[in-house]
């Protein structure tokens, strides 16, 4: 049994690696930081291949698939991604394009390539890591929220296609709220609500993935917020989200 995890050098990616290794899965771990991957490899119980690669490049995503497609991957976890906070007119365009390349284009490419392999074998699990940000617009984190909405909607559409095809392949979307990871440091935010621990979120996600839950939302507060986002009119929702995002700014 083999699992591929992107963004595996820290945070949720690292926790996914620990959990799946404990379950007996051999791992292929992908991230940019080789030293961190090597350190993680020493802590894991199963066979681990590390691949140092910047997945913001579509060329690299295709290269990765070509490199490991013969391994018959059982699980793919698309976890690589980052966020950024600030007024849309003031945030750096180059950084936003990098975010779109990683959060959207890389995930889209890897999902398409590995899902085709899984459909051919009629088995496999593919988990896309989105965010509770996927459920609404996000003033002051506009681009990040939009990328996660793309991930969520793409995943749900594919899931319905698989259902109509009567495929045994699973695809699902993890949509956590605040999690204690390096994401906060990269995005330069501080959360106004208590963040969940990354090991808890990862364990919850794996458990629900194997139960083939399409939308995985850890934490009662975020589940309630998701329900609220469906029933509260947008003209009331947007000012509330803006206020929450404003409080995150350091």
Q: How would you describe what is shown here?
A:
The chain is of the alpha/beta class and 250 residues long. 52% of the residues lie in helices and 14% in strands. The strands form two sheets. It has a seven-stranded parallel β-sheet, sandwiched between helices. Strands 7-8 form a two-stranded parallel ribbon. Helix 1 packs across helix 7, helix 3 (58-68) packs parallel to helix 4 and helix 4 (93-121) packs parallel to helix 5 (142-164). It is globular and about 50 Å long.
Instruction: Label the structural class.
Output: alpha/beta
Mean pLDDT: 90
Architecture per CATH nomenclature, i.e. the level-2 architecture: 3-Layer(aba) Sandwich
How many individual helices? 9
User: For the largest beta sheet, what order do the strands appear in spatially?
Assistant: 3-2-1-4-5-6-9
Report the biggest beta sheet as strand number plus sense, adding barrel if it closes.
7 strands, parallel
Count of DSSP strands: 9
The SSE string, one letter per element, is EHEHEHEHEHEEHEHEHH
Distance between the termini: 43 Å
Proportion of β residues?
Answer: 5-15%
Q: Helical percent range? A: 40-55%
Radius of gyration: 17 Å
Classified in CATH, the superfamily is NAD(P)-binding Rossmann-like Domain
Q: In one word, what is the shape?
A: globular
Which consecutive residue ranges, at least 5 long each, have pLDDT under 50? none
CATH topology-level fold name: Rossmann fold
Highest CATH level, the class: Alpha Beta
User: How many separate domains?
Assistant: 1
């Amino acid at each position: 049994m083999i699992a591929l995890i992107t963004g595996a050098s820290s945070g949720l990616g690292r926790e996914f690696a620990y959990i799946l290794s404990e379950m007996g899965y051999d791992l292929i771990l992908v991230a940019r930081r080789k030293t961190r991957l090597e350190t993680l490899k020493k802590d894991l119980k199963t066979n681990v291949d590390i691949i140092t690669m910047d997945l913001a490049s579509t060329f690299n995503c295709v290269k990765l698939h070509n490199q490991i497609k013969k391994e018959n991957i059982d699980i793919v976890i698309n976890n690589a991604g980052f966020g950024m906070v600030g007024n849309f007119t003031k945030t750096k365009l180059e950084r936003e394009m990098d975010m779109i390349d990683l959060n959207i284009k890389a995930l889209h490419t890897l999902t398409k390539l590995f899902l085709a392999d899984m459909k051919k074998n009629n088995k496999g699990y593919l988990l896309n890591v989105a965010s509770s940000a996927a459920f609404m617009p996000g003033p002051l984190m506009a681009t990040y929220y939009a990328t996660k909405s793309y991930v969520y909607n793409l995943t749900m559409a594919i899931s319905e296609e698989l259902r109509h095809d009567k495929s045994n392949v699973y695809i699902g979307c993890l949509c956590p709220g605040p999690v204690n990871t390096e994401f906060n440091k990269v995005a330069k935010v501080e959360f106004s609500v208590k963040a969940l621990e990354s090991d808890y979120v990862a364990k919850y996600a794996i458990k629900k993935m194997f139960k083939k839950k399409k939308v995985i939302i850890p934490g009662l507060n975020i589940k309630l917020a998701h329900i609220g986002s469906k029933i509260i009119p947008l003209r009331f929702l947007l000012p509330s989200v803006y206020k929450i995002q404003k409080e995150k700014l350091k």
